[in-house]
Amino acid sequence: MNEKNSLGLDKCFLETDEPFELFDKWYEAAKKKEINDPNALALATSSKNNVPSVRMVLLKDFSKNGFVFYTNLNSQKGNEIKENPSVSMCFHWKSLLRQVRINGKVTPVQNTVADKYYNSRAYESRIGAWASNQSSVLNDRQELINSIDKFKEKFNEKDNVPRPDHWSGWNLKPDSIEFWLDGDNRIHERLKFLLNSDGSWKKVLLSP
Asked: Where are the domains of the chain?
Protein backbone atom coordinates (compact mmCIF):
# COMPACT_ATOMS: atom_id res chain seq x y z
CA MET A 1 0.00 0.00 0.00
CA ASN A 2 1.27 3.45 -0.84
CA GLU A 3 2.33 5.61 2.07
CA LYS A 4 -0.19 8.37 2.82
CA ASN A 5 0.05 11.79 4.42
CA SER A 6 -2.20 13.05 7.23
CA LEU A 7 -4.91 14.05 4.72
CA GLY A 8 -5.04 10.52 3.33
CA LEU A 9 -3.31 11.56 0.12
CA ASP A 10 -0.26 10.00 -1.49
CA LYS A 11 2.97 11.07 0.22
CA CYS A 12 3.94 13.01 -2.90
CA PHE A 13 1.55 15.74 -1.67
CA LEU A 14 3.90 16.31 1.29
CA GLU A 15 2.91 17.73 4.68
CA THR A 16 2.94 21.43 3.86
CA ASP A 17 0.67 24.45 4.05
CA GLU A 18 2.71 26.17 1.34
CA PRO A 19 1.67 25.44 -2.28
CA PHE A 20 4.90 26.85 -3.75
CA GLU A 21 6.91 24.29 -1.79
CA LEU A 22 4.75 21.50 -3.19
CA PHE A 23 4.93 22.90 -6.73
CA ASP A 24 8.73 23.08 -6.49
CA LYS A 25 8.92 19.38 -5.52
CA TRP A 26 6.60 18.31 -8.33
CA TYR A 27 8.35 20.53 -10.86
CA GLU A 28 11.75 19.09 -9.97
CA ALA A 29 10.33 15.58 -10.39
CA ALA A 30 8.92 16.57 -13.79
CA LYS A 31 12.33 17.84 -14.91
CA LYS A 32 13.70 14.34 -14.33
CA LYS A 33 10.85 12.44 -15.99
CA GLU A 34 9.36 14.52 -18.80
CA ILE A 35 11.14 13.95 -22.13
CA ASN A 36 10.25 17.34 -23.61
CA ASP A 37 9.56 20.70 -21.99
CA PRO A 38 8.62 19.95 -18.37
CA ASN A 39 8.02 23.71 -18.11
CA ALA A 40 5.27 23.61 -20.76
CA LEU A 41 1.82 24.73 -19.63
CA ALA A 42 -1.56 25.47 -21.15
CA LEU A 43 -2.38 29.14 -20.67
CA ALA A 44 -6.04 30.17 -20.88
CA THR A 45 -7.07 33.77 -21.46
CA SER A 46 -10.37 35.42 -22.31
CA SER A 47 -11.31 38.41 -24.47
CA LYS A 48 -13.42 41.32 -23.29
CA ASN A 49 -16.34 39.50 -24.94
CA ASN A 50 -15.68 36.42 -22.76
CA VAL A 51 -14.40 34.30 -25.64
CA PRO A 52 -11.79 31.89 -24.22
CA SER A 53 -8.50 30.99 -25.86
CA VAL A 54 -5.84 28.50 -24.80
CA ARG A 55 -2.31 27.77 -25.99
CA MET A 56 0.95 26.23 -24.77
CA VAL A 57 3.64 28.52 -23.34
CA LEU A 58 6.79 27.91 -21.30
CA LEU A 59 7.27 28.75 -17.65
CA LYS A 60 10.51 30.71 -17.28
CA ASP A 61 10.55 31.47 -13.56
CA PHE A 62 8.49 31.04 -10.42
CA SER A 63 8.63 32.09 -6.79
CA LYS A 64 6.22 32.97 -4.01
CA ASN A 65 5.50 36.09 -6.06
CA GLY A 66 4.09 34.08 -8.96
CA PHE A 67 4.69 32.26 -12.24
CA VAL A 68 6.45 34.05 -15.12
CA PHE A 69 6.17 33.60 -18.88
CA TYR A 70 7.19 35.82 -21.83
CA THR A 71 5.44 36.84 -25.03
CA ASN A 72 4.83 39.50 -27.63
CA LEU A 73 2.60 41.99 -25.81
CA ASN A 74 0.65 42.64 -29.01
CA SER A 75 -0.13 38.97 -29.65
CA GLN A 76 -3.63 37.58 -29.11
CA LYS A 77 -2.83 36.48 -25.58
CA GLY A 78 -1.07 39.78 -24.86
CA ASN A 79 -4.07 41.79 -26.00
CA GLU A 80 -6.51 39.57 -24.14
CA ILE A 81 -4.49 39.89 -20.95
CA LYS A 82 -4.62 43.67 -21.28
CA GLU A 83 -8.41 43.41 -21.53
CA ASN A 84 -8.82 40.78 -18.82
CA PRO A 85 -5.88 40.02 -16.48
CA SER A 86 -7.57 36.95 -14.97
CA VAL A 87 -5.93 33.86 -16.47
CA SER A 88 -5.49 30.16 -15.81
CA MET A 89 -2.50 27.83 -16.17
CA CYS A 90 -2.46 24.04 -16.38
CA PHE A 91 0.64 21.84 -16.18
CA HIS A 92 0.15 18.23 -17.25
CA TRP A 93 3.07 15.92 -16.54
CA LYS A 94 1.95 12.72 -18.22
CA SER A 95 5.03 10.74 -17.18
CA LEU A 96 4.21 11.43 -13.52
CA LEU A 97 0.42 11.17 -13.92
CA ARG A 98 0.18 14.59 -12.27
CA GLN A 99 -1.47 17.90 -13.08
CA VAL A 100 -1.35 21.39 -11.55
CA ARG A 101 -3.98 24.07 -12.20
CA ILE A 102 -3.32 27.70 -11.25
CA ASN A 103 -5.73 30.63 -11.34
CA GLY A 104 -5.00 34.28 -10.68
CA LYS A 105 -4.26 37.66 -12.17
CA VAL A 106 -1.22 38.67 -14.21
CA THR A 107 0.88 41.82 -14.09
CA PRO A 108 3.89 42.86 -16.22
CA VAL A 109 7.35 41.95 -14.96
CA GLN A 110 9.81 44.77 -14.35
CA ASN A 111 11.82 45.93 -17.37
CA THR A 112 15.08 44.88 -15.72
CA VAL A 113 13.72 41.35 -15.28
CA ALA A 114 12.55 41.19 -18.90
CA ASP A 115 15.89 42.56 -20.14
CA LYS A 116 17.84 39.94 -18.21
CA TYR A 117 15.83 37.05 -19.59
CA TYR A 118 15.74 38.47 -23.14
CA ASN A 119 19.52 38.84 -23.19
CA SER A 120 19.91 35.20 -22.11
CA ARG A 121 18.13 33.99 -25.25
CA ALA A 122 19.84 32.80 -28.42
CA TYR A 123 20.56 35.44 -31.07
CA GLU A 124 17.97 33.98 -33.45
CA SER A 125 15.30 34.07 -30.75
CA ARG A 126 16.04 37.71 -29.97
CA ILE A 127 15.81 38.53 -33.67
CA GLY A 128 12.54 36.62 -33.87
CA ALA A 129 11.04 38.86 -31.19
CA TRP A 130 11.60 41.78 -33.57
CA ALA A 131 10.75 40.03 -36.83
CA SER A 132 7.50 38.29 -35.94
CA ASN A 133 4.33 40.32 -35.58
CA GLN A 134 2.91 37.50 -33.50
CA SER A 135 -0.64 36.32 -34.29
CA SER A 136 -0.97 38.61 -37.33
CA VAL A 137 -1.83 37.21 -40.76
CA LEU A 138 1.06 36.47 -43.14
CA ASN A 139 0.72 36.79 -46.89
CA ASP A 140 3.16 33.89 -47.18
CA ARG A 141 6.07 32.34 -45.25
CA GLN A 142 8.59 34.36 -47.25
CA GLU A 143 7.24 37.54 -45.69
CA LEU A 144 8.42 36.32 -42.28
CA ILE A 145 11.79 35.16 -43.62
CA ASN A 146 12.33 38.56 -45.22
CA SER A 147 11.54 40.26 -41.92
CA ILE A 148 14.04 38.03 -40.11
CA ASP A 149 16.73 38.87 -42.67
CA LYS A 150 15.97 42.58 -42.32
CA PHE A 151 16.43 42.57 -38.57
CA LYS A 152 19.55 40.40 -38.77
CA GLU A 153 21.00 43.09 -41.00
CA LYS A 154 19.89 45.83 -38.62
CA PHE A 155 21.19 44.04 -35.50
CA ASN A 156 24.25 42.31 -36.90
CA GLU A 157 26.14 42.39 -33.60
CA LYS A 158 24.95 39.25 -31.84
CA ASP A 159 25.66 40.66 -28.37
CA ASN A 160 23.84 43.91 -29.05
CA VAL A 161 20.19 43.23 -29.82
CA PRO A 162 17.95 45.43 -27.64
CA ARG A 163 14.68 44.09 -26.29
CA PRO A 164 11.70 45.40 -28.26
CA ASP A 165 9.17 47.43 -26.26
CA HIS A 166 6.44 45.06 -27.43
CA TRP A 167 8.12 41.97 -25.95
CA SER A 168 8.15 41.30 -22.22
CA GLY A 169 6.97 39.01 -19.45
CA TRP A 170 3.87 38.48 -17.37
CA ASN A 171 3.71 37.28 -13.79
CA LEU A 172 0.69 35.30 -12.64
CA LYS A 173 0.06 35.81 -8.93
CA PRO A 174 -2.19 32.91 -7.94
CA ASP A 175 -5.29 32.95 -5.79
CA SER A 176 -5.76 29.19 -6.14
CA ILE A 177 -3.49 26.25 -6.97
CA GLU A 178 -4.79 22.70 -7.40
CA PHE A 179 -2.63 19.56 -7.39
CA TRP A 180 -4.01 16.44 -9.07
CA LEU A 181 -2.69 12.87 -9.00
CA ASP A 182 -4.04 10.08 -11.19
CA GLY A 183 -5.75 7.28 -9.27
CA ASP A 184 -6.91 3.77 -10.06
CA ASN A 185 -10.40 3.52 -11.57
CA ARG A 186 -10.41 7.31 -11.95
CA ILE A 187 -10.50 7.82 -8.18
CA HIS A 188 -7.99 10.65 -8.47
CA GLU A 189 -6.48 12.60 -5.59
CA ARG A 190 -6.98 16.38 -5.61
CA LEU A 191 -5.67 19.00 -3.20
CA LYS A 192 -6.54 22.67 -3.67
CA PHE A 193 -4.91 25.68 -2.02
CA LEU A 194 -7.02 28.83 -1.72
CA LEU A 195 -5.48 32.20 -0.89
CA ASN A 196 -6.87 33.85 2.24
CA SER A 197 -7.18 37.62 2.62
CA ASP A 198 -4.27 37.64 5.09
CA GLY A 199 -1.94 35.98 2.57
CA SER A 200 -2.09 32.52 4.13
CA TRP A 201 -3.37 29.45 2.30
CA LYS A 202 -6.35 27.22 3.03
CA LYS A 203 -6.22 23.57 1.96
CA VAL A 204 -9.29 21.66 0.76
CA LEU A 205 -9.73 18.17 -0.67
CA LEU A 206 -11.78 17.81 -3.86
CA SER A 207 -13.74 14.85 -5.15
CA PRO A 208 -12.30 13.32 -8.32
From this structure: 11-120+168-206
